[in-house]
Amino acid sequence: MTTPQKIDAERLRSRLLAPAGPYAAIDVVSRTGSTNADLRVRAAEGASDRTVLLAEEQTAGVGRRGRTWASPAGSGVYLSVLLRPAEVPPASLGSLAMVAGLALTDVAAELGVDAVLKWPNDMLAGPDRAKCAGVLAEAVSTGDSAVVCGIGLNVLPLREPVSPGPGGQPATSLADQGARTTDRTEVAASLLAALHERELAWRRARGDLEMAGLLDTYRERCATLGREVRLEITGGRSRYCRVVDIHPTGALVVDEDGFWSTVFAADVVHLRPAS
Q1: Which of 144, 171, 242, 243 lies in the 20 to 30 Å Cα band around 2?
Q2: What region holds the BPL/LPL catalytic domain (predicted)?
Q3: Residue 3 located in a structural domain
Q4: Cis (ω within 30 of 0) for the bond into 161?
């Protein structure tokens, strides 16, 4: 088996580093526990807005609710971006994960991969709608508005089995879905460029997805909209409902036996249509 080429930090910097590009710093490390954890430390130490950290391998990569994110060496793009969007109120920072989700689907479309979004932060790809990427956005207590946005994207086939997500969702990769390229440097560059474009609109709109012109696009790409779902709430409770809309804040609007409400945090399991 051939050894995957490492991500080329100099190629990324030549295309994306200030002043020619939008990012203040771009570093690639061979191995770390979690790029999000590392950038939270750097944020506390005063790292600049739009600082990027990528890792060839994460040994303690995490997703939402502390779940493990498999990050084997040379298989994916595992990156985190420190953002200091002073224009965005803290209460609106939560919609950043959805902005990153749009960037992921932008890249998937560019690579010829059929992909959709599962609220709030997963990219599903292929006819079986298997999980190809996830996002974890974490606010940082630094005295100003700061958030670390982590993205894990499976580029090459995973060599080891991965435990299915909520609802038994299997894993897949861009390669499995016939992507036009699996050059991880190229994929990382495209993802960072797409994230910048989407995040800039979000930032200028003070975190309002509708004002940023992102909400309708998210609705179009969100496979959760219109579905019957099971919501798994913290504490082990479950709710069954139908998703009727995405609120401008990024929350789900659900219909539960004729009663509409908004849901800001939950694991969503797509229920199979009745046969």
Answers
A1: 171
A2: 10-203
A3: no
A4: no
